[in-house]
Task: structure prediction
Amino acid sequence: MSRSVTAFQGGHQALRVAPGRPRRDLHPGAWWGWAIGAAVVATLTRNPLLLSLVVAALAYVVVARRSDAAWARSARLYLLLAATIIGIRLVFQVLVGGLREGHVLFRLPQIDLPAWAAGIQIGGPVTAEGLWFTVCDAGRLAVLVWCVGAANTLANPRRLLRTLPHAAHRLATAVAIAVSSAPQLVESTQRVARARRLRGGHATRVHAVRGIVVPVLEDALDRSMSLAASMESRGFGSDHRPSRYRAEWWRVAESLTVGCGAAAAALAVWLRVSVPVVLWPPASPLSWPVLDPAMVAVAVLLALPAVIAPRPTEDAA
Amino acid sequence: MSAPESAVTFDDVTVTYPGRDEPTLRHADLVIPEGDLTVVVGRTGTGKSTLLGAINGLVPHFSGGELRGTVVVCGRDTRTTRPRDLADVVGFVPQDPVSSFVTDRVDDEIAYGMEQLGIEPRAIRKRVEETLDLLGIADLRHRPLTTLSGGQQQRVAIAAVLAGQPRVVVLDEPTSALDPTAAHDVLAAIAALVHDLGLTVVLAEHRLERVTQFADRLVWIPGDGRVIAGSPEDMLAATDVRPPLVRLADRLHWDRVPVSVRAARRRAQTERIRLAPVATGPAGTPGPPVAPVVSVRRLGVRYGQLDALRAIDLDLAPASVTVVMGRNGSGKSSLLWALAGALPSSGQLRVAGVDPRDADSDRARRLVALVPQTASDLLYLPSVRAECDQADAESSQPAGTCVARLTELGHSLDPRTDPRDLSEGQRLGLVLAVQLTGEPPVVLLDEPTRGLDYDAKDHLAAIIRDLRVRGHCLVISTHDVEFAALIGDRVVLLAAGEVIADGPTREIVTSSPAYAPQIAKVFHPSPVLTPDDVLPAGPPPRADGGRSR
Result:
């Protein structure tokens, strides 16, 4: 939408207005550069406050700048995966974890293993320190997963593939088929699962799974074949050197976005070197993590692209 | 340049697929002149897709099988040229546009083919715009493909192929998923391209009534491997594919088959055609009031922000056939799924006194059966017998019930057959038998005629009439106005999730320009629905066939 000129200045209509900021998609590489900066921060710290700030900053940008396209709706899945990682690590810590010192919350029956399995302990005391350390440590991996998720949600995977050199073109297109089949798979799974209910509930578990998997896979195979046929008949892989319809622009916003990621990473490195205890609090004794002003600055830097980046182009519906 | 050049030439072409004893095409000779619109007709499984695929080399390069003889397209032999190297002269639009989309935005999709041909980016941008205008979809330029309606998607698929400026465009059933209005728009757009750009178009179509008026030539594939081409008039009289106008010509003993509604109307006007009594009587005689088997009050379905159905009130009688029609996305499928209690909905719903939303799935299955649009979604076992046994178990019926239903439906299938190897009609029959095993009083069919040829449709119509006689309440959603005219007692028209018309088929359908079947258009304003409603010109010259009564 263009901005309408309505302001009057001393009876004269203002004919010269600032150019409206056009919608455009940020170069996918810029989103990935920014996300890598956030990932560097995550690897440098075990401080749960900073990890939470990074998650929040990325989430803010995702909400502000994602498009309506199918691939942009996957953010929730990545968050779920991240939470699952923390959950699984906690279960392992409770059952076979090595950190058993400190404030005991409860005790599991301990199983003594033969000598050849020395070093592995099943059961035993479950301590607050052990659980807290696990949450913080698994949190780093979870935040890394979220960084990938945020980049994937903001950057159109097909456009990223287009920016690859010509030599990788065929590989890129193969990946494009895989990328396009993922949302289709979700859609046909939902459709078939819905249809399954029409056949009544007598199905055993094996039948129920089979009833969904068989039609979905058939559907996926059919679709992939017709996509391949379509690409073949539209000239994919012919001797022509393919051209590009939409050039990927690298402008100031791209540089600033990557710059924010890089600055956040640099600040985190500085913090890690100058005050290591802030980013890497000891597992024991149990203590409330420190909130350093520099950590807030890291989060603000990571959140800035929500303002710097232009709004995406999808004007759906 | 020699005068009428041929765009495509088949010279003694025989195509045999592996594992088949009989060739699909046998010694086929065919010349498709440049600038013609050629329509390929034939029953399901006779080789229409094989013929279309052979034009751009997908057969045999992609499909496998053996092709003997030569196919020459714009001077190139498909034996030595792969489909990708024919892309600059032949455009191919497959049946399902969605599965052929390579990108996710309209303009990217249109540009894709040109990118593959190595066309310069500036030229691509210009041609994208031109093509968008050509098909009247310029406002969709930046839309994600998944948000488009079926008709829009089909136009984008056609635009994506046209943008590369091929000389021949091949379309496999371009209107099979479209509502009557969208189908007419797409076909008119194609016809305009033939006229304006001199494009050569070859298209396959089941619902012949939609295309004969645009066709320069018909190619008939009878099913024994032969390929026969000729003018629409000659071919319509000869083929076993029988659109309504052919049936009308038969009924009235006309020597020539009219190819368009207009031609038929002119001929009908010159003759004194009598209307059968049913067409002249008061439209739809209401029987004694019966307690409805389905009763719906203020039924609503909502997907996120979108109201798919708003406050629908409906009463459906036992032993009746109700046809639900409307544009793509008007809420037809949502209505059927909501009636089956298989979709979250608001409002009141009673099927035989029970709300199927509260019933467990076993009970719901014995109340109301739904055959979804993609009927094969319900099939997952390796043989017809296994599916039938499973259906008996699911419906708590004695073994053999489902097989018996299948036989009643007129399908004698080898119980060892894999359901995937069945024809569309047979697969629909199997799913119907599976769903009818629980003897539900209400049967819902979502777009059952998709992909069915005239014979299979006649068979389905007979099944539906039989179910109606046995007291089932049937609700059928369809885009096929001819089929609706054939079977419907009552028509419910939906638009944007609301009922905009509801009444006897004859009344609703003959008064709507978009949903009128061909015969109704010929005899408008007389309420004629099918060829059975008219009688050949007879001796007593009663003015206007007694329509004034």
About this structure: The longest helix of chain B spans residues 180-197. Chain B touches chain A through 75 residues (CB under 8 Å).
